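Input/output pair, single chain:
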Amino acid sequence: MNSQTLSAVRRDTDICIVGNGAIAKTTALGLAQAGHRVTLLAPPLAAPAPVAAVGAEQPWDVRVYALNHSAHTLLSSLKVWGALDSARVAPVESMVINGDGQQPGDLAFDAFGAHVGALAWIVEDRNINQALDAALRFAPHIEIVHGRARALAADANGASVTLDDGTVIACQLIVGADGGQSWVRGQCDIGLDYRPYHQRAVVTNFSCELPHHGVACQWFTGEEGIVALLPLPGNRVSLVWSAPDLLATTLMAETLSEMAVRLAVLCEGRLGALRPLVPELVKDVPLALIRPHSLVAPRVALVGDAAHVVHPLAGHGMNLGFGDVAQLIATLAGREAHRGIGDAAVLARYARARREDVLLMQVATDGLVRLFGADLEPLRMARNLGLNLLNKLPTLKRKLISHAMGK
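Output:
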C-alpha cells in the first residue's frame, strides 16, 4: 500500500472511495480483500496529533460507538476486530430504557435473555481507526492519496474524480463515504430530506462511584432531552446527551463538574457520584435527520452518513454504515460475470438490499424523538405504559433485541 500526495497525473483503479473515517477505511479494506484495486481519497495531510508520553494512559475518546453483532462480524472477517485494543472495549451486558414523568416506565434487555455473551460493544472512534490504519498499511491493492476533490464525472465507460492539483483518479465505481455533508452526494445531484432536531449531542466521559456492571442506560427526560450513559472499561461511562439547543449551549458553557451534578439528578444517582475524566474533554454535534432520495447514482454508491443520518438515541448510526459496507461487498461479489462493478443493475441491487433496514431505523428513531419530545401529560402516560407493557412481552422483546443486535 502506498500513501502519498499526488502530482498532476492520471491514476487508474477499480474503485475510488472518498472519505477518511472508519466507514471509508472499512470499505477500502473489504473491497481490496475481495480482489478489487482500491484508491482511498482522503483530505490533505494535517499536522500529526500530539502523542501521549511513554507509559501515560491515552485520554479516553469522547466519540464512541455501540457496535452490534453485524459490525463485529464484518470487522472480524477483515481481521480488524482482533487488532483493537481490547482493554479499551467494553461489552454491554444489559440495556435499560427509562421513561419520564411522575410514573416513568422502563424497558430492559439483557445478554442472558438474548442468549449471547454481549448485546453490543462500546468502542472508541480512535481505537477503531488505529486498528484500521494498521490493517491498511499492510493491505495489498490499496493506494491512499491525499487531496481535495474538485470534480466528479461518470459515463458509460467509467467514472473519475479530479483533484485540485489536476490529478485524475479514473475508476469504474466511486463510493461516497464522506459523511453527512457528503461532497460525492452533492456532485451527483441526489436530492434529500433534511430536518433539524434542534438538539445537539453533548458527549464526554466520567468516572463513576458505583460499578456500572456493563449496563447501558438511557433516560427520556422530556424537556431536557435524551441522556445515555454507556459503559466503558473500569468504573467509567461515556455520556451522550441529546439536549435541546438552548440547554446544550448552557451545558457547553458550564464546567464538567457542574454537568455531573445535573446528571446525578436526572439519573437518580444510579452510578453514585460522577467525576470528569482527566484531561477534561467535551464536544457537541448538531442533530438532524438526513434522508437522501437514493443510495446510488450512475457509477456511484453511498455508504455510512453519506447515505443516511439518524438520531443517535438508538446508537445505530455506525452500525447502519457497517451494514452498508457489508452489503456493498456482497452485492459486488454476487454480480453476474458480464456485469461490471459500476453496472447500474448491480448498484440498484445494493440500494434495494439496504432499503428496508435503513428505512426501519429512520422511522424508528425519528418516531421515538417525536413521541418522547411531546410534553403532553396524556401522551407521557401512554408512552410510559407502552414501555412497561413491552417489558412484559418476552417474545416481542426478543425480536426487538435480535434486530438491534443485527442478527
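The chain is about 35% helix and 30% strand. The first strand starts at residue 2 and ends at 4.
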